[in-house]
Specification:
Blueprint lengths: L1 H9 L59 E2 L5 E6 L4 E7 L3 E6 L3 E6 L16 E9 L3 E9 L3 E7 L10 E3 L4 E8 L7 E6 L7 E4 L8 E9 L4 E11 L3 E7 L10 E3 L4 E9 L2 E7 L5 E2 L4 E3 L4 H4 L1 E9 L4 E11 L7 E6 L7 E4 L27 E5 L2 H6 L7 E4 L3 E7 L6 E11 L13 E2 L2 E5 L64
Parallel strand pairs: 1-3, 9-14, 16-22, 23-28
Antiparallel strand pairs: 2-7, 3-6, 4-7, 5-6, 8-10, 10-12, 11-13, 13-14, 15-17, 17-20, 18-19, 18-21, 21-22, 24-26, 25-27, 27-28, 29-30
Length: 519
Amino acid sequence: MKRFLLRSLLFLIALTIQASGFSKENSNVENLMNVQLCMDGHKSDGGNSMVLYYSSRFESFFSTNCNTPTVLTSGITLNGVYTGSDLYYTITTVGPLDLAIAGSNMMVEVIDNCTNQNVQAGPFCMAGTYLIKVTGLTSTAFTLTATSYTPTVTISFVETSGTTNNDGIVCEGADVTLNANPANVTPPAVVTDYDWSNGDATQTITLTNVTTADGGTYTVTVTDDNGCTFSSSTTLVVNALPVFTIEDTETSGVGNDDETVCVGDPFTLTANITVGAGSTYAWNLPDGSSSTTHPLSISAATIAAHNGTFNLTVTDASGCTNTSSIVMTIVALPAVSNTELRACAIAEGSTSGDFVLEDAEEVPNYPTNQNFAAEIDNGIAMTVTYHLSLVGAQTGTANASSGVFTDGTIIYARVEDPTTLCFDVAQITLTVVDLPDAVNTELRACEDPNNLGFADFTLTDAELAPAPILRAIPIFTADIDNGGSGITVTYHGLQVMPITMFHLLLMAHMLMERSCMQG
């Protein structure tokens, strides 16, 4: 009976260990082996918990002496009985302290020291050693939980811009999401507030169509329900897009480098980059083809492939891309015809002729069956110049002047549009036409008895000369046109040789010529 009473009087608190064991640094609990453990038939928590009794030979787990408080380990829940004396505990934390007590009319406080025991206002957010006081109005069972926690928060990115996704290095115009990721907060605390340095107050913030001004440091401060705050910062890098213009280089047409090129001429397109050196280039041509060559050189412009818009996408070393364009106008060349020019030989049997090139824009109108009537410039008002070589025609040098050329000489006509200055070259073959083979001859007629010294000549029949009148047997002289066919003979009175009335025979001198028309 005495033993029972003594145990009852000395009994202060039963402690049920539900979490971890006591720490070795607990100076009041020298060793669990030194504590007398007994199984009591009563189960204070309704479970198979072990009730710790203390012996009067050792210090209490429920210290009523402020100067020798019970040392608590973070995460232990104490189930005890308050008997009316204030209980004191101490705990050393590595972060904020979360205190919770359950029991009718029970109170848990943090005090500054044992002498004054001034109650400290929470929150208890700094790492350190805290002196805890448990008090109540009446004796009652209570549960005390004291937990130290080390909350953290990290910031993650969600973006698909630049060379690597979700690394916080993006290009202008991208959309970026920043997530605050708290950890080691629950249990026991819960987050109640997010405060971003840009003024947002949600766990996740989204930046749309970012500019370089959006780059910089972003900080989020998280507040838990104990009133403790913890922060994290990260840096968002916003790279400017490449900035460039496309320039053309060419010497074709009216002006150089003016985005207008004649068919067949070369041109080059180059990106003039002012921001973001390009690492890759992607061209889209007017005909739908593509190229990754830079600069883009076109050896011979065509309307089908090159007339229209050239788009260029430049990607810089940061993975940022931008697109620019240039519109090229490809101008058709004048229509020209290779042809032949003819001139009469400068003398019978000569292979040289006197050509008037200024009249050569339209080929002389020879008989249609010879097909010499087409114009060099096809009837369009073009500027035509003549040159001794193809290179001369292409460069506008080595001009050819009217004059004597040998049969078969080839010259070149540069046919140029005076508006666009686009030109094409026609090849002209100079052909020397031999003179007709004419025979000097004599025509005779009987004297008019009524008009001595004169006779009646029929020049229309003069292509074949009559025989001498006094001969019994007709003897005919050679034809004037030497028997040639297709020769036109005309007659003309010449004053080269004087004619007198005293001649018995009238000498008629005839000039036969073929008309060599040159335009």
